[in-house]
């Protein structure tokens, strides 16, 4: 791995931050880095941690707007009433690598031909390499019959244990979407097997 990094010059990078005049009310910031990671979820954290250990401090930038980091695989256990939403949350600052630079903002536009990302605040990040790990956009409006998804902390809080009585009185249906989704295994773990165990116990 070190030989590969040396081949691409990843061992000799440093973060460059500069200011330039803007016609807007506030000045914009220009950043330059060796590796830019867009998204601070589990995937983005993993990539940033791996390369920030091998590069000089400040060579990696993570672009992530949220101050909360959620470990999504635990959402299945929350949905079945085994644990709480609070157990899935950590401060983003505590899970992002300390050698990386965290910019708490989101990407407004990505210009791969120029190796530039523009943030929502209008700042500009120039990079040599980029990893896009922004995740998926959930479209819950396409879920019919008031189905309860388990892909966000808010929806996961509707713990199925509260409706187990209704499930025993009628028929319960677990649906697995055909389109790509994050952590596909969770679609069966919580709705099917964990909930079946919960219903049998209540």
UniProtKB/TrEMBL annotation:
Residues 150-190 are annotated as: Disordered. Residues 34-137 form the FAD/NAD(P)-binding domain. GO terms for cellular component: mitochondrion. GO terms for biological process: sulfide oxidation, using sulfide:quinone oxidoreductase. One of its GO terms (molecular function) is FAD binding. PANTHER family: SULFIDE:QUINONE OXIDOREDUCTASE, SULFIDE:QUINONE OXIDOREDUCTASE, MITOCHONDRIAL. This is FAD/NAD(P)-binding domain-containing protein.
């Amino acid at each position: 791995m070190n030989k590969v990094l040396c081949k691409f010059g990843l061992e000799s990078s440093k973060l460059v931050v500069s200011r330039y005049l803007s016609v807007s009310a506030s000045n914009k910031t220009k950043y330059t880095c060796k590796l830019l990671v867009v998204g601070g979820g589990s995937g983005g954290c993993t990539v940033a941690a791996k390369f920030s250990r091998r590069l000089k401090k400040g060579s990696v930038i993570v672009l992530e707007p949220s101050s909360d980091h959620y470990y999504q695989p635990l959402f299945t256990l929350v949905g079945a009433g085994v644990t709480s939403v609070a157990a899935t949350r950590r401060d983003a600052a505590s899970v992002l690598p300390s050698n990386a630079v965290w910019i708490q903002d989101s990407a407004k536009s990505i210009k791969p031909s120029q190796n530039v990302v523009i943030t929502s605040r209008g700042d500009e990040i120039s990079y040599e390499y980029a990893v896009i790990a922004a995740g998926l956009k959930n479209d819950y409006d396409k879920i019919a019959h008031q189905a309860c998804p388990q892909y966000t902390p808010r929806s996961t809080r509707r713990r199925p244990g509260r409706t187990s009585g209704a499930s025993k009185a009628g028929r319960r249906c677990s649906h697995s979407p055909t389109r790509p989704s994050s952590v596909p295994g969770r679609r069966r773990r919580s709705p099917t097997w964990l909930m079946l165990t919960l219903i049998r116990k209540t």
